[in-house]
Structure prediction request, 365 residues.
Amino acid sequence: MISIPMARPIITEDEIRAVEEVLKSGMLAQGRVVEQFEEAFAEYIGARSAVSVCNGTIALCAALKSLGIKQGDEVITTPFTFIATANSILHQGARPLFADVDERTFNINPDDVLEKVTSRTKAILGVHLFGHPFDVQSIREICKDHNLHLIEDCAQAHGAKYSGKRVGCSGVGCFSFYPTKNMTTGEGGMITTSSDEIAEACRLLRNHGDSGKYFHTSLGFNYRMTNIQAAIGVEQLRKLDGFNEKRIKNAEYLNKHLMKAEGLITPYKDERVEHVYHQYVLKVEDDFPMSRDILMNRLQEKGVGCAIHYPLPIFKQPLYQQLGYDDAGCPVASELANKVLSLPVHPALTEDDLRYIVEVVGDMA
Prediction:
């Protein structure tokens, strides 16, 4: 039975050796290896500073808190993403306000963002979904015109570019290093910024407000990354461009062989961006021979991993229904949730894997 997983982290002897060196050193918690990872990551992104934390959700929470987002504030974000994006706003006591998404890129729609700005809006939190950057230029202009902060959720877009610049350097960038991401540290997160003030606020937040040995100047938490995680991150960062090149090549192969299938819409790519295909997401239209859910079940029966990212817009999640959210005026997000289907695109795929995926989908088209 063929089995092709949706995701597979690539861990080699380089990562194993780096972790072994940390274990032998006895310096396991946050230390010099974390600093090395932060310095390399900031340089790669093109930001002045990178501040590591324990996961991507905490990166979002720390970024929002460092910007002064608090109870009574509103933050505009997308409803079509993983729930952590919106939940990080709730954790500040603020209210997520959902703007609809573009039907081609699946990213937050600047026109609808503009409609949703109120006197209580303090920030826009955009997501570079599935590895395709959102319209950074338009969102930055809205932020400038309305004196708003810009936070970039880059959890699915390590190395992606918008107009030649890597995501995470236009606002306050937030990254996740969960095992399924374009690069991993097992768990872990990173905040990128060119503001010394925001960087320092995030450093204080992650380590109990400690500005010197046992000298605590503010209320903080334990959000630290370990040297063990950072050692993996240093090695993965060196390979990230190669991983992404393979993802792009795999996506191009799938595009070439699936784009002519009636009822299947392959991923769109804006000419201004470098898409790094964290996910390869099809739209299954009504004229496809079977429903999206039946297609998914049959692919899984044939050993092809697939998934729905995401089956519910965030405002339809039980938590948000309990908080009084309705359809939030986001019809495109609601429609996409019923049509999207993700196929494997990760760099561990072989040529045989790709041919098999295309063959199985083609047999059903």
Observations:
- The longest strand covers residues 121-127.
- The chain has a mean pLDDT of 97.
- The chain has two domains: 13-236, 240-364.
- Residues 240-364 form a domain with the Aspartate Aminotransferase, domain 1 fold (CATH 3.90.1150.10).
